[in-house]
Amino acid sequence: MQTWLDDVIASGRIPGVSLATLRAGEPAFAYAGGWRGAHDAARIDTRTVFEAASLTKPLVAYLALQLADENRLDLHAPLRDIGGDYLPGDARSHAITAWHVLTHTSGLPNIVREAAPLKTYFAPGERFSYGSSAFAWLQRALEAVSGRTLEALALERIFTPLAMRDSSLIWQARFEANYAQGHEWDGEPVAKRRLETAQASWSLVTTAQDYLRFVRAVLRGEGLSRDSHARWFTPAVPTRQGNDAEDLAGANPLDPHVAWGLGWGLEPAQQCCFHWGNCPGFRAFVMGNRATQDAVVWFANSARGLRLVHEVLPHALAGDHPAVRWLRIGEL
């Protein structure tokens, strides 16, 4: 796989990649290659930080389940009763719970835009439609019940215990010396974002090595009760096809092979969990197998980064993976 990744980078299709795998629960393979970006011609190494985009969400789910285990967060209580109103005048939103957010059944849109303003598009719990915007409300609830900022929660409960020294939900001055810059489809660099406030749906900055430490803990069931860990990976709702998995109108068919749990996409027949990340100039992907304890995670500073899946995934996790078809990932 290393030679193939070197060839992809040499071709100029993707500037840089950071990748790491588990085999039977132990670190097995690591790759860091390519260039950081127009801002810095240095080579990417294992401590070069990338924007993880929606790979942030499983970490937030982990925090929510921990707080639920401690009886500080009721996953089925209306978020309005915990963190205050989020959508004044939208009566249906009063029923949205943490469970709805984590299973993407809140009825809220993925990204707020002119064609999809912030409102409920169907009754919470009715069906699946990937909705990143709901995570801001969940963040408010987590911070309310804990009395801590989301960054402080992540630092205390994930980053420090798992020795994720190059990870944060906000920009850190220490990242300035070694970070990757995103690139769009045509290779144009994307302006660097330096967030001062955590965003529960997308603001994680990390490395493949760090994120693999989190995945290893996830697969082992560390930090959660046995019941919560089981519920995390129990299919809660069947998914639907649609651009970016969003289906506000309910027009797309159900996918019988891909489900959603409490913060993870699931391939039930394969016993795999997965998530993908997509933000300007960056793509990321993670998949783990609970039975074999194998896993892979990678970050690419290119809009083409998900397309590595067709070569990388067969090396890391053997077998058929319907998530790839569900995500409609094109060829490199």
From TrEMBL:
Keyword flag ATP-binding: no
Keywords: Hydrolase
Pfam families xref list: Beta-lactamase (PF00144)
InterPro entries assigned to the protein according to its UniProt record, in alphabetical order: Beta-lactam-related, Beta-lactam/transpept-like, Diverse_Enzym_Activities
UniProt superkingdom: Bacteria
Protein name: Serine hydrolase
PANTHER family: BETA-LACTAMASE-RELATED, PTHR43283:SF18
Record-annotated Beta-lactamase-related domain positions: 4-305
Entry keyword Manganese: no
MF terms (GO), sorted A to Z: hydrolase activity
